Amino acid sequence: MTKVNWTGFSKKSPQERIEHLKKNALLTSNHLQDLQANKLLGLETANQMAENVLGTFSLPFATAPDFLINDKDYLVPMVTEEPSVVAAASFAAKIIRRSGGFQTHVHDRKMIGQVALYDVPNVKMAEQKILDSSALLLSQANEAHPSIVKRGGGARDIRVEAKEEFLIIYLTVDTQEAMGANMVNTMMEALVPTLEELSEGQALMAILSNYATESLVTSECSIDLRFLSRNKEEAQNLARKMELASRLAQVDVYRASTHNKGIFNGIDAVVMATGNDWRAIEAGCHAYASRDGQYRGLSNWIFDEEAQVLKGSLTLPMPIATRGGSIGLNPTVKIAHDLLGQPQARELAAVIVSLGLAQNFAALKALTSTGIQAGHMKLQAKSLALLAGASDSEVGQVVSQLLEAKHLNQETAQAILHKLRNIKN
Ligand code: NDP
């Protein structure tokens, strides 16, 4: 496949961007039509998805081009209300592509469910009895959800741990293309009678865990310093500062929290676009960030002086789905999967972690060079212009005057717009 030229994509209008996708055959014709017609989630479907529905709620649906992941090109769909997130991801993707792109590794893809028992009279004996009955428990779990077994998945492993007053049984399940919350919950509940009998204790709860440590995915990149700056000394200085920034997020929780928020600017955007449960992903990843007892930055950047490259890596639990939940219901979600080339769950997880790494690269580069506000001011001015009521044809002028004004606020934006309209009239 010849490489698509994305130069000037950000300057196009939404209709022109859709034309560009059409010209390069990046969407199927029915999805192109849906996108062109801005076909959104219908009220009838929305009313089935949640309770007390009053309407639907829209957010910008965008795309970040130029992602090269395991030698394959991706156009990553993103849903975000935050200015600069898509621009930053696209900028980073372009730089990382020049250095060979992202390489990923999906360690495994299984979910974990748990049953917590209490009032167990003899914990040691119960533990042994449960482990001795592993085969029975696995078959009971599979009988509770036979369709996943037919699809090649199912319950795989049982582990038991005593923690304080609890005896906790962990079940590992291959959920194939689904995130698996409902199927794992069904399996866990099915195990309760046998577990209570074996342990002579009581079950407190039976539920999936979002701490998906059996669904880890790593994305790595190695950036040639030439692409950080044309000036060698400046590039080396920046690479060193980016390594320091990554170390700062390892030792200071105040920084770690913001460092990881930047990663989730990208991750949440694609998790939402692909119809996945972003609360589940956030919960699992933040728990993973605290795995050694201290909350730390999730990514790592190392300046390899000898090779003159900046190496980045990000490992996250990423139990993402391509089936189930609301994925088949929302027309925009279907377009998102099409834009990505209908990947399987493992491939989608690798794309998402790569996007997180790209977003982090862009944030750290900006923070350690120009500062984050330089790029944000223009976008903030644009938001203020829109809030003041500027039309498409007025936004440009209001923004440029706002950037020169002493106070960048809504009052100034309104005054500029007022003046502009008076002059016109
Ligand atoms: P579903 O309940 O929609 O189940 C997925 C279903 O998709 C499967 O049961 C399977 O049904 C079908 N399917 C079709 N093709 C495949 C395939 N190739 N691989 C696997 N399954 C396939 O979704 P999940 O069980 O994944 O649960 C996710 C939902 O649960 C999300 O909406 C989430 O928000 C919510 N949730 C999350 C919780 C949490 O995170 N803690 C807790 C509770 C709910 P079949 O085989 O019968 O065709």
Automatic annotation (TrEMBL):
GO biological process: coenzyme A metabolic process
Involved pathway(s): Metabolic intermediate metabolism; (R)-mevalonate degradation; (S)-3-hydroxy-3-methylglutaryl-CoA from (R)-mevalonate: step 1/1
MF-aspect GO terms: hydroxymethylglutaryl-CoA reductase (NADH) activity; hydroxymethylglutaryl-CoA reductase (NADPH) activity
Keyword Oxidoreductase belongs to the record: yes
EC number: 1.1.1.88
Catalysis: reaction(s): (R)-mevalonate + 2 NAD(+) + CoA = (3S)-3-hydroxy-3-methylglutaryl-CoA + 2 NADH + 2 H(+)
One Pfam family hit: HMG-CoA_red
Keyword tags: NAD, Oxidoreductase
Annotated PANTHER family: 3-HYDROXY-3-METHYLGLUTARYL-COENZYME A REDUCTASE (PTHR10572:SF24)
Protein name from the UniProt record: 3-hydroxy-3-methylglutaryl coenzyme A reductase
